[in-house]
Write a structure and sequence with these properties.
The protein has 252 residues and is an alpha+beta fold. It has two domains: 145 residues, 2-Layer Sandwich (Fructose-1,6-Bisphosphatase, Chain A, domain 1), CATH 3.30.540; 93 residues, D-Maltodextrin-Binding Protein, domain 2 (3-Layer(aba) Sandwich). The strands form four sheets. The chain has a seven-stranded mixed β-sheet. A three-stranded antiparallel β-sheet has the order 12-14-13, with helices on both faces. A two-stranded antiparallel ribbon has the order 1-2. A hairpin with a 3-residue loop joins strand 7 and strand 8. The radius of gyration is 17 Å and the shape is globular. The mean pLDDT is 91.
Length: 252
């Protein structure tokens, strides 16, 4: 599969989903609570339906694991082949708070690794993408340009942490690292800040799902960064229940 040729179509698909989300963002939506106590809106569901239709047209042979479909009890048979991971609206809490820090996440998994990813922040007008062997890119109001994670500085480490989730373990980890600056951000924006070289580390010791991390992970890998488990093991996908362990995302 030529990932470089596939990327533009996936970027366009994420942007279409983001445009649909913005319609609901402007008008306001009702929210309900799923079985896991997380919020979901009609914007999540409409964006996921659009993405599923688009992926079926682009790669009908590749199954899709999407957050809301899985929440409804529908999990495709994956086997050992490639599969898509989709979070149609990552950061629903940020969406409801109307702070703009929500994203559309689409990632392709091959083996147990994310090899292509697109993260679109529609309210911010920013889209990041990357793939194995193709590098990572950002497009915003200033135009389109390549991005790269930066080497860890000898001092002045910048950490990015979740805006909605904080815990004593994360605070202790950041204190131990001697972080000079902390940035709070929602959704997959945290991975993208490390991929851009604006931050050096993003630890997450709370619960996440594979669709929360795969697209941002793919962009960061393409930018020269890495994600490992807390003990330094490779951070992989296709796990039972699609649940992630604790992880640390780092720059180059």
């Amino acid at each position: 599969m030529d990932l470089t040729r596939l990327l533009p179509a996936i970027v366009a698909l994420a942007e279409r989903a983001g445009a649909l989300i913005l319609e609901h963002y402007r008008d306001g939506v009702a929210v309900r609570t799923k079985a896991d106590a997380s919020p979901v809106t009609v914007a999540d569901e409409a964006a996921e339906a659009l993405i599923l239709e688009g992926l079926a047209g682009l790669t009908p042979e590749i199954p899709v694991v999407a957050e809301e479909t899985v929440a409804g009890g529908h999990v495709p048979e994956l086997g050992d082949g490639r599969f898509w991971l989709v979070d149609p609206l990552d950061g629903t809490k940020e969406f409801l708070r109307r702070n703009g820090e929500f994203t559309v996440n689409i990632a392709l998994i091959e083996g147990r690794e994310p090899v292509l990813g697109v993260v679109f922040a529609p309210a911010l007008g920013k889209v990041w993408w990357g793939a194995r062997g193709a590098g990572a890119m950002l497009r915003d109001a200033a135009g389109e340009r390549p991005i790269a994670a930066r080497p860890r500085p000898a001092s002045g480490i910048v950490a990015v942490a979740s805006r909605s989730h904080s815990d004593p373990q994360t605070e202790a980890f950041l204190d131990q690292m001697g972080v000079a600056e902390r940035i709070s951000a929602g959704s997959s924006l945290k991975f993208c800040l490390v991929a851009e070289g604006r931050a050096d580390v993003y630890p997450r010791f709370g619960p996440t799902m594979e669709w929360d991390t795969a697209a941002g992970h793919a962009v960061l890998r393409a930018a020269g960064g890495q994600v490992t488990t807390r003990d330094g093991a490779p951070f992989t996908y296709r796990k039972p229940g699609f649940r992630n362990p604790e992880f640390i995302a780092r720059g180059a």
